[in-house]
Specification:
Blueprint (H helix, E strand, L loop, with lengths): L1 H8 L16 H12 L4 E4 L12 H10 L4 E5 L6 H10 L2 E4 L4 E2 L4 H10 L10 H5 L4 E2 L10 E2 L16 H16 L3 H31 L8 H6 L5 E2 L19 E5 L6 E6 L2 E7 L12 E6 L8 E4 L11
Parallel strand pairs: 1-2, 2-3, 3-6, 7-10, 10-12
Antiparallel strand pairs: 4-5, 8-9, 8-11, 9-10, 11-12
Helix pairs in contact: 1-8, 2-3
């Protein structure tokens, strides 16, 4: 049960971010990148082949990227193969960098026609990029000499001066956004708190059961002596009085009495059966020999209400003195 609650309440992993769809197929990547292109420059480095899928909205997504091509930078490093999808992305980019040791995959005639319809290529111009890429697979060295493809050489990154601080308004907006994100409850923490409460309740219930089991097993509280259990297997319930009670002197028969059957020796205390329930009883006539197991006696409540012990008397005249 706790495992089921754990699996239901707690999150199964980190929440999907905006960049998760950028790791899917070609069209899904275009959909993701087109949103980024509207906010600034996006650099895509093709370290592995990118296949071209057959999504219905592929042409529309390509047209959206083409309108913002100046913000798209595509790099093909040495040893990498573009795949047809990567080659299409290279055509759509406004800034193309290809290493001479790269491999650019061929475009199929249908893909070339699609790019021509979008206006990404110009077939009427000699040595148009789509026309060249539609002939065969090309090594990067055959493209780096073109004016529309730059050579991807060793990268050098140099910073002049420290990074500028963002404007005050932007900082305030960033702090406000961070504060709003932190103000909401964390689902993971809520799940852990709920699970902790359940574990505490379960532990409390377990302790209560153990304590009750021990109290029932303690002698004179709830467990029957061995002799009553061996004497009468038909007895199904037991009711025990205090563990120790003072032995009374000779008692007079007062109040109503009820017939009972002795189940253990009354020396002076033992057990009698009354209505298929065992009760602790004491022999009220110390001067007389108490009857043994199976004998009939009359029992009455003790005069002292603080002791839940019955007083046993000899049976009234005319009653049967022994029972099964």
């Amino acid at each position: 049960m706790l495992l089921g609650i754990l699996l239901t309440v707690l999150p199964s992993g980190p929440a999907a971010g905006a960049g998760d769809s950028c790791d899917a197929g070609f069209s899904a990547r275009l959909r993701c990148w087109s949103g980024w292109l509207g906010k600034g420059a996006v650099t895509v480095r093709l370290n592995q082949a990118l296949p071209l899928d057959t999504a219905r909205d592929r042409a529309g997504l390509a047209a959206r990227v083409l309108k913002q091509r100046e913000n798209l930078v595509v790099q093909v490093p040495a040893g990498a193969t573009t795949g047809e999808g990567g080659t299409v992305l290279l055509v759509l980019a406004g800034h193309r960098f290809v290493d001479p040791g790269a491999h650019v995959s061929r475009l199929t005639p249908s893909t070339v026609r699609e790019l021509n319809r979008l206006g990404a290529c110009h077939p009427q111009i000699r040595d148009d990029l789509c026309t060249v890429l539609g002939t065969r697979d090309l090594p990067g060295s055959e493209l780096t000499g073109r004016p529309d493809v730059a050579t991807l050489g060793p990268e050098h990154s140099v910073a002049v001066g420290p990074a500028p601080h963002p404007p005050a308004a932007s900082s305030a907006a960033a702090r406000k956004k961070t504060s709003s994100q932190r103000s909401g409850p964390d689902p993971a923490m809520i799940g852990i708190a709920v699970l902790g409460v359940l574990l505490v309740l379960l532990l409390a219930a377990f302790v209560q059961v153990v304590r009750r089991s021990r109290s029932l097993a303690a002698p004179g509280v709830g467990a029957l002596p061995a002799s009553p259990r061996a004497t009468d297997d038909t007895t199904t319930r037991s009711r025990n009085g205090p563990r120790a009670a003072p032995s009374p002197g000779p008692a007079a028969r007062k109040g109503p009495t009820r017939p009972a059957v002795v189940r253990t020796d009354l020396h002076p205390q033992g057990y009698v059966e009354l209505g298929r329930v065992l009760y602790r009883a004491t022999w009220a006539q110390p001067g007389r020999t108490p009857p043994g197991p199976g004998a009939r006696v009359d029992v009455a409540d003790a005069p002292d209400r603080d002791h839940d012990v019955l007083f046993a008397f000899p049976p009234a005249t005319g009653r049967q003195t022994h029972a099964r």
